[in-house]
Amino acid sequence: MDYRSGMMSAEERGEKRADERYSRLIQILMSQKRMDDIGRIAADALYRKKLYQEFHL
Q: Tag placement on the chain: N or C end, fewer CB within 10 Å?
């Protein structure tokens, strides 16, 4: 594996983790019937970060 393909794998792993984290947050919000927050996290990165911290994600 060369440097470039190693970096691509690292990027892909990072993206996968970010996607899984985002999905988990949505699942939590849905289970708590916080539908307005789902729309808000899509548009507001600071609020999304706050909720990641709130739910220890």
A: N
